[in-house]
Amino acid sequence: MTTQTPEQAAIEEWVQKNSKMLADYLFSMSVLTRDMKLSCRWIVPHKVMVAEGWAEKNPNDRYWLVAGSNAVLMDYAKAEVAKSPREALRHFALKWQLQAERIRTTGDRREFDAQTRNALAGVDMSTIADSIAEKAEYLYSLTENDVNWDNGSGH
What is the DSSP letter of 2? Predict the structure, then answer.
């Protein structure tokens, strides 16, 4: 029997917490049903988690998922956009950069779901755009650092 260190236990708890948040988010967005499965594919402990998600009844309909601390947004994309967690992070970085630019240019709140739009009422959209762009740059910096990917599975 292998005993976990306190650090390993904290990381596992963090992954489980983020997996539950992702599952709730995907269900609320009608992306996947409650029978979904999630598999953590890469993490920076306590900051970023990249996972794959799929419906148990339809395992070929897969999604890349990203979640984590305030340094990242919670998001999803069809699995076809990337072949690896690293490519998935690049995809999300570009997606968020483009989203930030659209918001900055138009101030349009349609980029967000209804609940988020309501929460953003009265908020300066340039501040939101700057925050999204900052998160995109953080993700991109992770993809560019080979040390994060040398062992093939992340951290």
Answer: P
d(CA 22, CA 27): 8
Quote helix, strand, coil % in the chain, to nearest 5.
50, 20, 30
Helices (H), the chain: 6-28, 85-106, 114-119, 125-144
CA angle in degrees (0–180, nearest 5) for 24-66-14: 70
SS3 62: strand
pTM of the model: 0.87
Q: What is the pLDDT of residues 5-30, one digit of tens each?
A: 999 999 999 999 999 999 999 999 89
In contact, 38 and 65? CB cutoff 8 Å: yes
pLDDT for 111-132, tens place per residue?
Answer: 677 777 777 777 888 998 999 9
